[in-house]
Structures are given as C-alpha cells and as structure tokens.
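Quick log. Single chain, no ligands specified.
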Amino acid sequence: MVLEHVLLALCLCVIAIRTMFTESPGSQSAKMPANLNDTVYSLLISTVLIISFVVWFITGFFSKRFSYRLTGMEIGLFVFSVAAIIGVFSAANKRTAITNYVTLLAPILMGVLLVQILDSQVKIKLLLTVIAALGVVSAYQCAEQFFVSNQMTIEQYEQNRQAVLEPLGIQPGTFAHFLFEHRLYTRGVRGFFTTSNSAGSFALLASFAAVGLFVDKLKNRKYGVHGPLRFVSCGIAVAIVIFGFVIVRSKGAIAASLVTVSMFVAYLMFGNWLKKHKKIIFIVCLLLLLIVGSAVVLYGVTHGRLPGGNSMLVRWQYWDGAAKMFADYPVTGVGGGNFGTFYTHY
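-> predicted structure:
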C-alpha cells in the first residue's frame, strides 16, 4: 500500500515536470549541447517511469494477492516494442533509436501502472486535480505567448537573425531554417510544449479532467461549508482551461474535440441502439475512413499539397517523404529518431 502511494506520487511529479518543462530530445542534432542536455533529461525521467513499473510488477508478482487489470494496451505495446527493437538494429544512428524507444515506452508503461494503482475515488480525483491544475498553468503560459512573447520573439529575430539561429544550430537557407520561420511567423501558441498541436492535445485532456471535477462538485455543491466555494473554483478552472484551448488554435485538437463531443452525445442519446448495431456501425465508419483517406491522398498527389495554408503543405511534405522512405525500407524502417536525418533526402 505504501509503495503504491509512492509510485503514484512519482507519476504525478513526472506529469507535472513534463507539462511545465519543454522537452524535445529528438528535434535537433544530438551534438548540440542544449539538445544533449534535453536527451539526458528525457532519459532520466523515462528511467524513473520504467523502474517504477518494474518495481511495482516484481513486488506485486511475488505477493500473495497479485492482480493485474487489463488495460487494452498490451497487444499494441508488444507490437510497438517488437517493431522498435527491429528498428534499433537497422537504424543508422542506433543511440538515437534507443533513446526514441525508451522515451516512448516510458509513458505507456506509466499509463499501465496508473491503471493498476488508481484503485480508489480519492486517487482518481487526485490525478484529475493535478491534470486540471496543470491545464490552468499551461493556459497562463499560452496566454503570455499569445498576447506578449510571440511578437517580441519576431521583433528580436528581425533585428538579429543570426543571434537567434546560432544557439539552435540552424543554418540560414536550410530546410530547418524554413521550418523555424514557418513556426515563428504563424505565431503558434504552444505553452510549455514544442508545437501547438501538443499544447492543444494537453488542453483537451485537461479540459476533460476539469469538467469531470466540475460535474462532481455540481452534484455535491450543497455538502459542507466549502461546497459552494469549491464549485465556483472548479467552474473558474474549467473556463481558464477552455480559454487556453481556444487560443492555442490547434486544428487537430479542435477536430478531435468535436469528434469526441459528438460521439459522447450520440452515446448518451442513442446508447442502446448503438450497442445493438455496433458491428454495422464499425464497418460503415471504417469504409468512411477509407473513402476520406483516399480522397485526401488523391488531392495531395494531384496538387502536391493539402488544402489550406503552409502548415498543410508541410504536413503533405512529411507524408510524401514518409511514403517514399517506407518504399525504400519497407520491413525495418529507418529506426526510431532517425526520420529527421533521412527526411531531408526525400
């Protein structure tokens, strides 16, 4: 019991650290000092998570009352691990591939661990509270970027471009320079993350946590002296997190939220009917996904880009390069973390 509380505390600390400190071990060359420190930091955090899972599993396995809750991630985790290990052996930069595998494996194992140790309402509410609070902090950072720092960064860059590019290891006129300017002039709001999509995804997660706590307080707002105060506090937190989600302007996160809300409303209104016809609905959705996906690919092949601004052009270039890369390395791929090195050749 004590061990599980310690492991939960470690997981909550890691969630907080990774939310409030920008982490991108594979974005630049590992030879850059700043990125080397970032890689070491990511590996340390990942090691803590992996060791936490291993300690829980070993101590639990040899106890008399060991139980394991299926998470639904086991098959996917196995396939991912096999593919990642094969990729390590075939990668040109094996160290980067190993780093990539470890940093991706660790949060998945943390998710599996949380399913095992979140065995009470108190623990679940604690996790939701931490995520919602981090959503508020992230929203503040997003607002600061939206109203102040993005414009200041552009002004500094235009005054002395080399002074901004040199610490990042970016050479003028390169593809990395093009991507940097694209992100700079689009005034992307990313919070503590590296992209607006990441910030939007976390804001979406935090909004669900905040709304869940708000609904709980709504049901129990009359209980206790501090009931109304807690209810109002949760309402303010929900408003702040949603505000942060809006100013991030992540198209992917907005689309995901619309799909999620639509599915939830459909489940509430037609739950029994959906259960009776779930196989037919699954087949129809699969066909629709195939049709829409084919239409998107056809448009991209025909026009050399996706409809929209420069961000959609960059996405199509990623997809096009990845498809050509897959054609050259169909079995093993290029290895985790090696995509950026090979991508420029395509």
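The CA atoms of residues 108 and 276 lie 32 Å apart.
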